[in-house]
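Possible regression after last week's pipeline update?

I re-ran a chain I had predicted before the update to compare outputs. Posting the input and the new output here so someone can diff against the archived version. Not blocking, just want to make sure nothing changed silently.
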Amino acid sequence: MKDPLVGEALEKAERSLNAAQRLLAEGDFDFAASRAYYSMFYAAEGLLLSQGKTFSSHGAVIAAFGEQFAHPGTIPVRLHRYMIDAFALRGLADYRFGRSVAREDADLVLAHAREFIDEIVRALGSGRGEA
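New output (post-update):
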């Protein structure tokens, strides 16, 4: 990891996932799902930063992550799907009133977020993410 911002993005991803786990344990499934999405978002930003790429919107990060890493096979394609699904769930969690995320959905998105971060860390460690 040559760019210190990459490390900072990954550290923020871990902190966000830790917060998601605490929220899940407290029964706050909406905010747990939202934080889990953000953990993926920060990790994806880190991987993109390793290539010197930055984007100004969530949609652009998600699209670039798919184009640059998932579709060429640098990282497993399922991770791109995880991120797309988590983004949709985050939309429900953040913008609907009441409780909109079921525990099962929160559990799944947290598991996906853990796998997502681990795969990105592996990709960066192997040099697959760096230019």
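Follow-up from reviewer: compared with the archived run. The radius of gyration is 14 Å. Marking as no regression found.
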